[in-house]
Design a protein that fits this description.
The chain is mainly alpha-helical. It has one domain. It contains 14 helices and no strands. Helix 7 packs antiparallel against helix 9. The longest helix is centred in the N-terminal third of the chain and has 29 residues.
Length: about 350
């Protein structure tokens, strides 16, 4: 809103001309998001404790997690609130891509909120059923895909990393493709959220990476030079991504080991959907597999574990997702967290290198 209110005044007050620059507003959105997190965080923790919204612990989880029972959960509300407010305040809310990303994030966050609420109410790690969770997620993602395809500057083609001339046009099949990307990203982040600060680190890295990618994709000269899909007005997504990364940083202040609060599904599902939507909007959907390599690893470990047990009656890992496997091998929790963060940074650097290697 500041952009819409102040930028028109630049002809009278030249200082407001800075609001025309996406880089300035992205930095400002990050600062606002971080400040909001620091201000709201302590109040939210006290409120969650007062309302006795504590984390139910997975019954078959590692023994060391028993001490975490009762830690305030649904802290992802802080992330969602901070990133939405800062984006609305600093970003261009007339940009349809920003509105789609905000809508998807809020939609998935609401689904996560209901799931968290049921877990707390039942004092169990079981919330919504599988399809009760997936169907609303698919509906939100499908609605976003339809809105995007109605935009004159948006195409149903898919860019393939390393191949500059390979861009298959999916046509109407772009809708189910978008559902797979957004829902898959959302649930992969959800699976990763099992240790203090484990999920939020890679989320911050991925958001920062896509902030750069969106900026490049929305700049006609940079897009042409790098031979990546150009999407008019998508550069504004850099503001949204900066807000996501900074909101995650603010949350990490309270979520770092030992955590004062957990993000819960309201945070993990919302953030995962945010990353998925940005990947789709910036036309770098497949690249999310590389950028979010940690999330892919976590999700694949669960798929492999379940498939192996059903087909062979044997487990591949001591426990899935894979971060629990390393816990049971004796790795300290901070050690697992930092090493997974390092892997996420490596994945981000690999993803950025593909922008030129085509």
């Amino acid at each position: 809103m500041l952009y819409l209110l102040l930028f028109p005044l630049h002809s009278t007050f030249p200082v407001f001309n800075v609001f025309r620059y996406i880089t300035f507003r992205a930095a400002l959105a990050a600062l606002v998001s971080l400040l909001l997190s620091f201000i709201i965080g302590p109040y939210l923790i006290r409120a969650l404790k007062q309302w006795q919204i504590g984390q139910p612990i997975r019954e078959d989880g590692p023994d060391r997690h028993a001490a975490k029972a009762g830690t305030p959960t649904m802290g992802g509300t802080l992330i969602v609130l901070s990133l939405v407010l800062s984006t609305v305040l600093v970003g261009d809310v007339t940009n349809v891509y920003v509105l789609v990303a905000l809508g998807v994030t809020l939609g998935f966050a609401v689904i996560g909120f209901v799931d968290d609420f049921l877990k707390v109410r039942r004092n169990s790690s079981r919330g919504l059923g599988l399809w009760s969770k997936l169907l609303p997620q698919m509906a939100v993602a499908a609605a976003a895909a339809v809105v995007l395809l109605l935009q004159p500057d948006f195409s149903s083609t898919v860019a393939v990393p390393f191949f500059k001339n390979v861009r298959p046009d999916l046509g109407i099949w772009y809708v189910p493709f978008t559902i797979v990307v957004v829902v898959g990203a959302s649930n992969a982040v959800n699976l990763t959220d099992g240790l203090d600060g484990l999920a939020i680190g890679p989320v911050m890295t991925a958001a920062a990476t896509y902030a750069l990618i969106a900026y490049l994709a929305g700049h006609v000269k940079f897009a042409e030079y790098l031979q990546i899909p150009y999407v008019s007005r998508v550069g504004e997504m850099s503001v949204f991504c900066a807000a996501v990364a900074a909101a995650g940083m603010g949350f990490l202040w309270f979520n770092a080991y030992p955590a004062q609060m957990f993000m819960g599904d309201v945070g993990s599902l919302g953030l995962g959907a945010a990353l998925g939507s940005v990947a789709v909007i910036s036309k770098n959907e497949v690249l999310l597999v590389v950028v979010g390599g940690v999330f892919v690893l976590e999700a694949v470990s669960v798929i492999v574990q379940v498939a192996s047990f059903k087909l062979r009656g044997k487990r591949v890992f001591r426990m899935a997702p894979i971060h629990h496997h390393y816990e049971l091998k004796g790795w300290a929790e901070p050690q697992i967290i930092v090493r997974f963060w390092i892997v996420s940074i490596i994945c981000a650097l690999l993803a950025l290198s593909t922008l030129k290697l085509r």
